[in-house]
From TrEMBL:
Transmembrane segments: none
Domain of life of the source: Archaea
SUPFAM superfamilies registered for this protein in UniProt: HAD-like
Protein known as: HAD family phosphatase
Pfam families: Hydrolase (PF00702)
InterPro entries recorded: HAD-like_sf (IPR036412), HAD-SF_hydro_IA (IPR006439), HAD_sf (IPR023214), PGP-like_dom2 (IPR023198)
Family as reported in the entry's similarity comment: Belongs to the HAD-like hydrolase superfamily.
Coiled coil segments of this chain: none
Length: 218
């Protein structure tokens, strides 16, 4: 059996466009004002672990509470007002379901944020599993833990899972887990390293075709 695991931010919804802007323009200058930290360095991480990473590597200029509050406020605006759904997603999920391919939403975002997306876009019953990094006590991407956990939850070997990811850390995490990786190229991430991916696509139509082809091939 093959399973397909979808990242949320930057794949299911174009929220990564807004998150990258938020991090570049607001959160990184506030948290590490004396450092030039690339957004790609922390993309794909759980936001709480971003704070730990920045504090450990550079020393944070704001408190954890202030950092979390800024992210929480941004999340509500991005997910409930600004982000748009991947074109053709409902049809793709329906086709995978018709083929008997289990699907999972696998995200570093907390369940509260995932819920904003699934409720707004009528996705609440579209996935067989919804998995947040908050479900596991393990390292964030680029560590492979969340994808290994997702594969185990579904009951499919990692090598038989197709993962759709957009960020450099997410692509690396999926590859390290031993999955087949589709890198979804989005403008927000620019020229990141996508070399660990098995396939790279740059449009919703290409993503659909590649996902269905790989799900059938494995």
């Amino acid at each position: 059996m093959t399973a397909v695991l979808f990242d949320m931010d930057g794949v299911l919804v174009d929220s990564e466009d807004y998150w990258v802007e938020f991090q570049r323009e607001e959160i990184l200058p506030a948290t590490v004002p004396d450092e030039d930290v690339a957004v790609a360095e922390t993309s794909g991480m759980n936001f709480r672990e971003i704070y730990d990473y920045l504090d450990d590597e550079y020393g944070a200029a704001i408190s954890r509470e202030a950092f979390v509050q800024r992210f929480t406020e941004a999340a509500e605006e991005i997910y409930t007002e600004r982000a748009a759904l991947l074109d053709g997603l409902h049809a793709l999920l329906a086709e995978l379901d018709d083929r008997g391919v289990p699907t999972a939403l696998v995200s570093s975002s907390p369940h509260e944020w995932i819920g904003m997306v699934t409720e707004r876009f009528d996705l609440e019953n579209e996935f067989d599993h919804v998995i947040s990094a908050d479900d596991i006590d393990a390292a964030s991407k680029p560590a492979p833990d969340i994808f290994e956990y997702a594969a185990a939850e579904i009951g499919v070997p990692a090598e038989d899972c197709v993962v759709v990811e957009d960020s450099e850390n997410g692509i690396e995490a999926a590859a390290r887990a031993g999955t087949v990786v589709i890198a979804y190229r989005i403008d927000a991430h620019g020229d990141i390293d996508r070399s660990p991916a098995d396939e790279v696509v740059a449009s919703p139509a290409a993503l659909r075709e590649c996902t269905l082809t790989l799900a059938e091939r494995l």
